[in-house]
Amino acid sequence: TVAVVLCNTDLICVNSNVIASLEKKICHWLRENTSPKWIGLQIVKSICRAATRRNLRTLTTVNYNKVYERSENQKLKKSSDFFHKYQNIMDAPPGVFQGSLDRFNGVTIDSSKEYEENEHFPDKLEKSLAYWKEQKRRAIWFTVRTEHSSWVPHLTKVGFEFHHAKQGYVVLYRWLPNDEYENIPVYSHTMLGVGGLVVNENNEVLVVCERFSLIPNSWKLPGGYAEPQENIVDAAIREVREETGVECEFNTVISIRHAHGGIFGCSDIYCVVALSPKSLDLTRCEREIAKLQWMPIDEYLQHPNVHETNRHFLRCYMDYKKRGIRFTCEIGKHQVLKKEYCLYYMKPIDEDNGS
């Protein structure tokens, strides 16, 4: 029997006779691999545990040995795996959902892995709940894909609550312990928006007037919402390029505005980033932008159709330059999770190279 793990374009074949001895090396290699198609450390660990305990008899039943495309579901799984440290529950009795055990002693069941056309779901759910209570599990999570939505009424009937939903799936949960309070994390509740403050060498500010503006005919900074898994600086550069056609490079973070009661009832963080243009040619996004221009700084600071908050952003930028400081961004890596992150902090501007 051979265990096969696909990782990006690499194929690693581990013979059954040596799989246990190679576990440590494989796991170390995967920890260091930050490829977008990284499969997940827990997969290899599970394969190795299965091979060791069951002499590879159950190895062929592990259905995690495939490469997932970089999709919303993959991003969700990868980030959750890092944080919760999921493990396969290999010793679940027959007729019980296998699921994955997280570090908080909770269980997650994904319908894409455990849905069976001819099974009687209510009976299996009842037996699973009894087993999890006996094992003193805490939060039970069901990720139900759209094509398996017939599960949902049965789950809500036995006390499961909706936690969140996204395109293609819904997540429900039930808290089992009666001797401790329900410690369930809330789902994402804040939208992240960005604005690009682009000032050229002629002391002009890049401004746009949106087609569907909240304040008609007002001038504002190009910007929009960050996409999933997108860094603040990258989002600002992309939004400026999409709306105006101007390519830019990062200069400094200017300001952060935090408000509540926004779209979908979420809070809202708006981060303004100063960018340096690589060209002055403008290409209007006809779908979103009614008009755009390079506006002289003096005019911008006095223009009646420029909101005071936007003037404030420019004044902050000019003050930073005067003081010789910038709010910079550097890429770091978590020493345990091996995940990259953006670190923002204030530093003096180097007069020699402007960095």
Automatic annotation (TrEMBL):
UniProt cross-references to SUPFAM superfamilies, sorted A to Z: Nudix
Residue ranges occupied by any Nudix hydrolase domain in the UniProt entry: 189-318
UniProt keyword Hydrolase, yes or no: yes
An example Gene Ontology molecular-function term: NADH pyrophosphatase activity
Keyword check for Secreted: no
Swiss-Prot/TrEMBL keywords: Hydrolase
InterPro entries with a match to the protein in the record: Nudix_hydrolase, NUDIX_hydrolase-like_dom_sf, Nudix_hydrolase6-like, NUDIX_hydrolase_CS, NUDIX_hydrolase_dom, Pre-Nudix
PROSITE patterns assigned to the protein according to its UniProt record, in alphabetical order: NUDIX, NUDIX_BOX
Pfam families: NUDIX, Nudix_hydro
Entry similarity comment: Belongs to the Nudix hydrolase family.
PANTHER family cross-referenced by the UniProt entry: FI03680P, NUDIX HYDROLASE RELATED
Name recorded for this polypeptide: Nudix hydrolase domain-containing protein
Taxonomic placement: Eukaryota, Metazoa, Ecdysozoa, Arthropoda, Hexapoda
Encoding gene per record: 106084171
